[in-house]
Amino acid sequence: xxxxxxxxxxxxxxxxxxxxxxxxxxxxxxxxxxxxxxxxxxxxxxxxxxxxxxxxxxxxxxxxxxxxxxxxxxxxxxxxxxxxxxxxxxxxxxxxxxxxxxxxxxxxxxxxxxxxxxxxxxxxxxxxxxxxxxxxxxxxxxxxxxxxxxxxxxxxxxxxxxxxxxxxxxxxxxxxxxxxxxxxxxxxxxxxxxxxxxxxxxxxxxxxxxxxxxxxxxxxxxxxxxxxxxxxxxxxxxxxxxxxxxxxxxxxxxxxxxxxxxxxxxxxxxxxxxxxxxxxxxxxxxxxxxxxxxxxxxxxxxxxxxxxxxxxxxxxxxxxxxxxxxxxxxxxxxxxxxxxxxxxxxxxxxxxxxxxxxxxxxxxxxxxxxxxxxxxxxxxxxxxxxxxxxxxxxxxxxxxxxxxxxxxxxxxxxxxxxxxxxx
Length: 423
Hints:
By secondary structure, the chain is of the alpha+beta class. It is 23% helix and 28% strand. It has 9 helices and 24 strands. The longest helix has 16 residues, at 383-398. The two termini are 32 Å apart.
């Protein structure tokens, strides 16, 4: 395909010559792993158990405002959809060990297990650890002695047919900051990084981080964290398969935090799961099946923008950036990492540290930019047809219709765009 730049107006589309892609955002990345799971009917006799932990009162570094309230909120939402819930607050190291042992005793008899942890977590050398309230963590070598590894919980939950882990544990962490400053002062690497590290799941397990790996989540200005509020709200949604449900959680968190926080889901699940099932499930819409995420919502020169799209296999997407003055720049699909998710989906993403990135430059047009894609369910388009499609899509975007379709079968075109602001 020949790359081209376009200027769109209501009446005409003018091709701006040149095969070089404008760096209006050198391409935004987002290391976001999202998952896709299929969905099955939850049986009435299903044995559901949830371990919910809220650690707020840390002895060494002071109190976190929301984890206790977050744990209470999530516990009640899970009870309402048929889970037996064991909820705990301010667990020390012994307490974390005891609830892990209890979960191990229960695991062989469970059909579905949930772990929700709100509080502080830390990563060292790519391994994640949950921090009890009595931890001292004077040095990096004390992490394995004074914390409980996330891997310990995952190994127990691997025994359960369906397991779901929700980690609202990426809050700004004084322990990590202290250890990072310690390594900077003595010039030695401690293996400590902000936030939590990406992990590999096994079987029908879903792990959701409140924000991206190596990033910090918000505790929340109100009574609860953005992630806990969104999760508790959507758990009660009837007939929402968990993959669709978590997309809605992601959208809510990004909306509340102006794109600064994006949950990440990691999964290889093949089994469909519903928190709440009724007799008559509504069919999924295309908007539910397709995910587009562009973040953060606001960027300045030198910062990266991230893009992730999960699309049906029959969609061969064409990606574009549209500036406030309607200059359109194609983003070659070769710039994206592609992954087959199963269930008929393919993920396109440009991630931090990848070969290509979307980096905002001083010369880029300020204001509300839009990144997205369209795809035809029929034959491939010529360049002239693409210009016509873009003209029509631009008219829809002017009406704030960021997702939708134009035309009719067999030439129907689906499009999805998201907005971000260049400061």
